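Sample log: NAD-dependent epimerase/dehydratase family protein.
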Amino acid sequence: MSNTIKALIVGASGITGSNLAKKLLSKNIITYGLSRTPNGNINGLITVAANLLDKDSLATALADIVPTHVYFTAWMRNDTEAENIRVNSLLVSNVLDVLSAKGSVEHVALVTGLKHYLGPFDAYAKAGTLPLTPVREEHPRLTLDNFYYAQEDVVYAAAARDGFTWGIHRPHTVIGYALGNLMNMGTTLATYASVCKETGRAFRFPGSAAQWNGLSDVTDARLLAEHMIWASTTDAARNQAFNVANGDIFRWNWLWQQIADWFGIEAAGFDGTIHPLETEMANDAEVWTRIAQKHGLKETDLLRLASAWHTDLDLGRPLEVMTDMSKSRKLGFTHYQDTRESFFELFALLRELKLIP
């Protein structure tokens, strides 16, 4: 990559942004990390603190920064989809409006996800909106309000105004390390398995028959980072939307046992009923505090680690879900990540960092 690239990551403290920052820095790219509460734990990352919803705050924070590549990995969860649209489109437009006058931006990358195909939170994977799978990039937008669509439209409009190229990245469930992340299946399953081991409970699959028996895939945060960098520096890949996944497929009825074996606990498969993790773990906050104290863990607040609501959305879906990556492959992106290793490497890292016992 050219050393003339200057990268700005919006949301650098999250699961996608932090992994992207490490990957960019490993390629000797000057990298700024913009967020309300910057991540100071990444060596070499130049942190920038600002309120993404306050244009004046952004203008001050970015006054001396002239990025060539902007990567949006941030979002904010709200009570309604209408509010999701307002807030999450504003955080994109504010940053691009502030940077517009500089004339430095050459490419903008936006991370969304499979809710592009499955619908927003309040109508997620409901009958009447379910796509044919594997999902493909040419699948039309659903006739539903969706903050992903609103964010895309902001990027398209700014690109037409300012002349930069763009890329849209649609990962499946992202697996990787981050602390305090709103959507983190890997760490959620690690904490659930740790609670089961400590209490002697069975590691019970929380989701649907379709997810238990059907094919699925996921996206390693490190592979997603590689994909974003590739698309933002490859001429043929610009001005395109891409699905992003590891490149293998699996069934949860296989992977669930693999995870249980890693933790040395008893697996319990789908028994004909969905058992949401939000219910299964509803009373585990105090249990986790005891576990943390017993094993000298660094995080005693279970909610800083687990996002049961999001794992329930994914594992409770009434259909198998996997992604087609032919578009990326044809243009030359050939990276692959073994999904079992994505989980196992994350678990090992969480253990090394004293976040799980």
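Observation: Residues 176-217+249-353 form a domain with the Rossmann fold fold (CATH 3.40.50.720).
Observation: The radius of gyration is 20 Å.
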